[in-house]
Design a protein that fits this description.
Helix content: 25-40%
CATH topology: Rossmann fold
CATH superfamily: Flavodoxin domain
Shape: globular
Number of domains: 1
Number of helices: 4
CATH architecture: 3-Layer(aba) Sandwich
CATH class: Alpha Beta
Largest sheet: 6 strands, mixed
Number of strands: 6
Structural class: alpha/beta
Strand content: 15-25%
Distance between the termini: 35 Å
Length: 165
């Protein structure tokens, strides 16, 4: 059975039909590389969904997190894509990780956290020192909620936003 990946773009840009972000470009590079190895990839932009603040998997009416959570857990590989703002992961990425906190108190049929057996990648747009810092923050959180973090799995884009290099 082929592997699948789900990428969640945590850019701060409000989604519009013709509005590509640097994080979109970074995720496209990564998902194209995975697709070359027959990994089926899907990408969604977090701001296109109503992700309520909180630490539960379902916060009721008008909370879109349960649908995104389902896609994250259905994939073999979860990719968290984000820009750096003021030396930190974007607030959107932090909200996504906060919602994953619910995994700590949830178990699957084998008694494991829902993300057990799944790999997490983090794709960052920003400066090198900031990228290392943000990878540390994100990978610690993702590992805490059950994802496997691959060695040297942090990818980042250093340079001018939307640049060619």
């Amino acid at each position: 059975m082929p592997l699948t990946a789900f990428a969640l773009n945590c850019t701060l840009k409000i989604p519009r039909d013709d509005d590509e972000s640097s994080t979109d470009r970074m995720l496209a590079e990564l998902t194209n590389a995975l697709a070359a190895h027959d990994v089926g990839c899907e990408t969604a932009r977090a701001l296109a969904h109503n992700i309520k603040p909180g630490v539960l998997s379902d916060l009721g009416e008008a909370d879109d997190w349960p649908k995104l959570r389902e896609k994250i857990l259905a994939a073999d590989i979860f990719i968290l894509g984000l820009p750096i703002w003021m030396g930190q992961p974007s607030s959107v990425a932090k909200r996504v990780m906060e919602r994953m906190d619910a995994f700590l108190s949830e178990t699957d049929d084998s008694g494991r956290m829902p993300a057990a057996g799944k790999v997490a990648l983090v794709a960052i747009v920003g400066n090198e020192d900031g990228a290392h810092h943000c990878h540390a923050e994100c990978y610690q959180a993702l590992n805490d909620v059950g994802f496997t973090v691959p060695a040297n799995g942090g990818v980042y884009w250093v340079g001018e936003a939307m640049g060619d290099v």
